[in-house]
């Protein structure tokens, strides 16, 4: 990969990577820092990255940077601190997007990442497996469990509309 191909990769994928990181971190500055780290790693390894694999490399690196960030800033909470009502709602809302974002934030980090890659970014199960380092069947299971949680969290359509 040369300088021109690198610049093209930055132009083509930076918006998607930023959206992915912002959705996961919920912090503009952290998302920008992780994106900077991702592209720095791409620049350092530019000789080892083939141009046709650059998108996969970028998202894999961004995912791993995010995981490293989470591990570094991990906070331990006890099970008693997690109240059951934090994982459901019974109020009536009119903004489905707001409820869905709130529910996605309640998902475990791995489920959240694979759902965002699948449903927001449009990656296939195979591509998500390559990005996250999980097997394709694990990706399917995490997506299924995440969607079931979202379905249970949102509840009846009447509660949302």
Any overview of this molecule?
This protein is globular. Helix 3 packs across helix 6 and helix 6 packs across helix 7. The longest helix is centred in the first third of the chain and has 23 residues. It contains 8 helices and no strands. By secondary structure, it is mostly helical. The protein has 2 domains: 70 residues, Rna Polymerase Sigma Factor, Chain: A (Orthogonal Bundle); 82 residues, Winged helix-like DNA-binding domain superfamily/Winged helix DNA-binding domain (Arc Repressor Mutant, subunit A).
Protein topology:
Blueprint: H1 3-25, H2 28-44, H3 54-72, H4 96-106, H5 109-120, H6 125-132, H7 136-154, H8 157-160
Helix pairs in contact: 1-2, 1-3, 2-3, 3-6, 4-7, 5-7, 6-7
Please identify, by name, the CATH architecture of the largest domain.
Orthogonal Bundle
What portion of residues is helical? over 70%
CATH homologous superfamily (4th level) name of the largest domain: Winged helix-like DNA-binding domain superfamily/Winged helix DNA-binding domain
Radius of gyration: 17 Å
Number of helices: 8
Q: Find the structural class using helix and strand composition.
A: mainly alpha
- Total individual domains: 2
Mean pLDDT: 83
What letter string, H or E per element, gives the SSE order?
HHHHHHHH
Shape: globular
Q: Could you give the count of β-strands?
A: 0
- The CATH class of the largest domain, by name, is Mainly Alpha
Look up the CATH topology of the largest domain.
Arc Repressor Mutant, subunit A
Give the amount of beta strand, in percent.
Answer: under 5%
Question: What characterizes the major β-sheet?
Answer: none
Low-pLDDT sequence parts: none
Gap between N and C termini, in Å? 50 Å
């Amino acid at each position: 990969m040369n300088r021109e191909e690198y610049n093209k990769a930055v132009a083509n994928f930076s918006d998607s990577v930023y959206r992915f990181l912002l959705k996961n971190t919920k912090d503009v500055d952290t998302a920008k820092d992780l994106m900077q780290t991702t592209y720095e790693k791409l620049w350092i390894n530019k000789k080892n990255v083939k141009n046709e694999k650059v998108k996969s490399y970028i998202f894999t690196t961004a995912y791993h940077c995010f995981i490293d960030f989470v591990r570094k800033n991990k906070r331990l909470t006890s099970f008693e601190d997690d109240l059951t009502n934090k994982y459901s709602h019974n109020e009536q809302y009119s903004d489905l997007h707001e409820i869905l974002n709130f529910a996605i934030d309640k998902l475990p980090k791995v489920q959240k990442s694979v759902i965002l890659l699948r449903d927001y970014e449009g990656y296939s199960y195979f591509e998500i497996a390559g990005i996250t380092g999980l097997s394709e069947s694990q990706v399917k299971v995490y997506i299924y469990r995440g969607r079931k949680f979202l379905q249970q969290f949102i509840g009846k359509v009447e509660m949302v509309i």
